[in-house]
Design a protein that fits this description.
Elements lengths: L1 H7 L4 E3 L6 E5 L6 E2 L13 E3 L4 E5 L12 E3 L4 E3 L14 E3 L6 E3 L12 E3 L4 E3 L14 E3 L6 E2 L13 E3 L4 E5 L12 E3 L4 E5 L4 H4 L4 E3 L4 E4 L13 E3 L4 E2 L6 H8 L8 E3 L6 E3 L13 E3 L4 E3 L13
Parallel strand pairs: 2-4, 3-5, 4-6, 5-7, 6-8, 8-10, 9-11, 10-12, 12-14, 13-15, 14-16, 15-17, 16-18, 17-19, 18-20, 19-21, 20-22, 22-24, 23-25
Antiparallel strand pairs: 1-2
């Protein structure tokens, strides 16, 4: 018992009062180097492991799958290699997995869909390949799905439209193709929606600003065509609108004027990037009514003409 009490006094180690068993390891930001011992699987009372922001390397031990009480696993910002540990899917109480910014390869295991309590899944900035598993659509409690900067391919599964609690969706910088499932546009809880730098195509829904009332959107560098949804101007919380590098626009002379005017009510808008599209027309005087919080405004490589309105001087943070 004395030995266990000594462990419980170590930095980053927390124990339960009653039985003095280790329940939490918080060793983040300690400049630790090396591999993680498979014996971590013996700490069967662990509920949280946070090894983030260190220099751990090697494979993630499959023995972590023995930690049946585990709820949160933070391994972000390290140099872990190998594939996602499939035994981890035996930890049925898992609520959060954060493994972004490592060197993980291979495919995202289909078995992840069995973790019914999972609300956070971040695997961005790795070397993951293959497709997004259809089984992720079974994660009915998922609020945050973050998979950018990988080598994922194929289409976005329509099953993701079943994630009725989803708030944050980040799929940028992959090799995804096809059309965005229309069911995703109907998850009203989504506030962050980023699918930039893929090969997605199709037309943006005209009611996008109504079905996703809390939206922050970034669908730049894809193959989208057609008009911009005019009701984006109803999004009071909109901070970033990134639509560059598509073929958006209908070549109608007043389209640009109408769209920029419609954004006058977006009082929190900070970045508006419409470059490399097919917008045509004059910059309206109503540009003076855009949010004074705007720091970035790009219209290059479109079909704009006329003079730049003097009212642009009202955008004091540009």
């Amino acid at each position: 018992m004395c030995l266990r009490i000594i462990f419980c006094n170590w930095q980053g180690v927390s124990c339960a009062r009653r039985h003095q068993r280790v329940t939490l390891l918080n060793l983040s930001y300690l400049a630790l180097v090396g591999s993680v011992s498979p014996q971590i699987g013996n700490l069967t009372f662990l509920r949280t492991i946070d090894l983030g922001n260190n220099s751990f390397h090697g494979e993630i031990p499959q023995e972590i799958g023995k930690l049946f009480r585990l709820q949160y696993l933070w391994l972000n910002n390290n140099s872990f290699q190998g594939e996602f540990p499939t035994n981890l899917t035996q930890c049925s109480h898992l609520r959060g997995i954060h493994m972004s910014r490592n060197n993980l390869g291979g495919k995202i295991p289909t078995e992840l869909g069995s973790l019914s309590n999972l609300s956070i899944l971040t695997l961005g900035d790795n070397r993951l390949t293959g497709t997004i598993p259809l089984s992720i659509g079974n994660l009915s409690n998922l609020r945050l799905l973050c998979l950018p900067y990988n080598n994922l391919e194929g289409s976005i599964p329509t099953q993701l439209g079943q994630l009725s609690k989803l708030e944050f969706l980040q799929l940028s910088v992959n090799n995804l193709s096809g059309m965005v499932p229309t069911s995703l546009y109907n998850i009203s809880s989504i506030y962050y929606f980023s699918i930039a730098d893929n090969q997605l195509h199709g037309i943006l829904p005209p009611d996008l600003g109504l079905t996703l009332p809390n939206l922050q959107v970034n669908f730049a560098v894809n193959l989208f065509t057609g008009p911009m949804p005019m009701n984006l101007g109803t999004l009071d919380a909109l901070e970033t609108l990134g639509a560059s590098g598509n073929s958006l626009g209908t070549n109608q002379a007043n389209e640009l004027m109408s769209f920029l005017t419609s954004l006058s009510n977006c009082s929190n808008l900070q970045a508006l990037d419409l470059n490399i599209n097919d917008f045509k027309g004059f910059m309206p005087h109503s540009i003076a009514n855009l949010s004074t919080k705007i720091t970035w405004f790009s219209l290059e490589n479109n079909y704009t003409s006329g003079s730049i309105p003097l009212g642009i001087g009202n955008l004091v943070n540009l």
